What does this fold into?
Amino acid sequence: MKFFCLFIFLSLQTPLMVIGDRRLIESTCKATPSYSLCLSTLLSNPKSSSGDVSDLGLIMVGATKVKATQAIQHIKTLYRVHPELRHSLNECSQVYMAVVKADVPSAVQALDGGQPKFAEDGMADTAVEAQACERSFSGRGQKSPLTQMNKDIENVANVARAIIRMLL
Amino acid sequence: MTSSSDLENPLAASALPHSYAPLPDGEQPAGNNPTIRRPRKAALFLVSAFLVLLFVVALIAGNGPVQRKDLNTEVSLTAPEKVTPLLSRGVEKGVSEKSFHPLLGADDNSYPWSSNMLDWQRTAFHFQPKKNWMNGPVFYNGWYHLFYQYHPDAPVWGKIVWGHAVSKDLINWRHLPIAMETDQWYDEEGVWTGSATILPDGQLVVLYTGSTNESVQVQNLAYPADPSDPLLVKWVKYPGNPVLVPPPGIDSKDFRDPTTAWKTPEGKWRITIGSKINKTGISLVYDTEDFKTFELLDGLLHAVPGTGMWECVDFYPVSKQNENGLDTSVDGPGVKHVVKASMDDDRNDYYAIGTYDAHKGKWTPDNPTLDVGIGLRYDYGIYYASKTFYDQNKQRRVLWSWIKETDTEASDINKGWASLMGVPRTVVLDKKTQSNIIQWPVEEINRLRTNVTVFKDVVVEAGSIVPLNLPAASQLDIVAEFEIDEKTVNRLNGDDVGYDCVKNGGGAQRGALGPFGFSVLATEGLKEHTPVYFYVAKGVDGNLQTFFCADQSRSSTANDVDKSIYGNIVPVLKGEKLSMRILVDHSIVESFAQEGRTCITSRVYPTKTINDNARLFLFNNATATKVTASVNVWQMKSAHI
It folds into this structure.
């Protein structure tokens, strides 16, 4: 019985907390190129419920970092299995290292410090790096094993960029 | 033991005893052959573009404190430099091995950008620190000082410190240790842009923006630890910092980049700081007597709706009649005032000319339709966070800007550096138009000229191209005049189609009277080339409009570099010939039309047009007129950068 009451109590709390913030999230995402990607990424992070636009930008930058880090790990695996793709894979690992080691930390520092344009630069560069990775395969006449991953990173970086632009 | 009279007379400074080895006088270390490249230093990455207009432009620094080098040992090559592949190219460039080494088996050739291509991009006579954010230039005690924003940890923006370099001639530089680190709570997150003011007694004070441990933007006071040290190596931060915090109504992150101070009629010092209220860019005004306590004026210096945050605001007088520059405090009937701001929104530097009311602390533009942020730009290419300083040594006002990279971050990491400073430019009011300024490379740059090749009265027929035979084409100073055929112009029917450098098709889109100009950094066969050109359009009313553009759309076969086309209209007055000057320095091209009425800075990253493959062409892609060109092309020696 106690458990049941607690459950009801908690269910009632959550929607009330989220309604106002949800509107901010929805209106922010509407101004990005991928509304549903934006919405699902932000909502899956509990910090989004109490954040301002800068915080939402930080969440999206964080999501970009996660995807780029995953890409680097996946590239390592592919390298062992597909030595014939090593040139392109090496190029891809370099560009995603640039994203994780340079673009993302710079964007975070920039959003924290009230210099959003550097964060925008970092996310704009991330999208370009993702495209460069994809082209490294076609440029060598090879089929890319990373197409979906590259596209995802490009999309999430573009969403981050659109959010950051609202701060300028 | 310097007497105060030495401080008041900076020109006597060279007589002061000091323990620093003299800087080589403009001699470039690698001999006279402009194709010899200097050994690459650790890469610098330009981090932020904020300019602090204090000292002569500073550029980026490398990892850790810069060691004072014995410059004579840097002279080396007598043979063209060979590029040897390294296991981890990053380390030699000063990039931290643990951060950036390739994850997988090293293979230098796997990346489309070969080290040869990346090495070529480094310039020969543009100031390039490792990380390049410009602070403020100043001339003090016989030296030009440049303090720049430097990020020690990565080739991107981050926690900024102040790098420092000095020069006797604005062209050859000596790197000095970091001037200011993020060692106080009030600048823990960054020692950002600031400005220097020279007081009447010769003292130098600096106001700069610190980003506090909680990322609040505040203004701080700093001054040289030893004013008698001509190199101003050590700096002291005022113990009572911060001297200014964001005022009520101003966001804690919209308060930065204090200007050089100027005198008010009451004898106080006045500064302005850019900010914004919603989307209106504004300029706050503060008065002070001691740079420690300030009074915020009720009104703003100026504001323009819709322009967003104003960064790196600059405010200075220009003479209406004379060709010399003016000290920032000068005012009077023969003077106009320029307000400039860097627009956060679109990354361009805008300026406007107007009238300053010293009693009210207000400035009004001469032409409100060309107000700050919506009118004229210093430069129609890549040019941001620029700042001027008054060079009392040569009585000129000098403009300097940060020029970022327009390639990828991955390339910047690989090549080991990012960003540079444009060539310093003198700024004066255009006496003929009275409605714009004129910028021109400082005359010291001419000392790098050598081996001139002259082409007189070259006729370039419609739709043709003329190769200009030169010993080399990566480091050039090109000065040219063009004439189009007057009979053709008169015979032509005008139209109202209009032209826009940015939106039209660049050098390949043909009109009756243009485009014509130069293809710089071109390969034989033009697989890669960068046209810099005039496009003349005749309107229905018979009037001519001239556009000046730089076209990067075919500048490189690489896909990951910016390929925009830049440019703007350039006023051409009756009786004037069309003239342009182009400085080519590897990956940067600076173009000037009509003696500096319209300027364009471009970054170019070719893959084939490097080393001995670079060429220069004259072209005329107009359909109706022939063009007659007279050209002087100098090879440019390398400087100490």
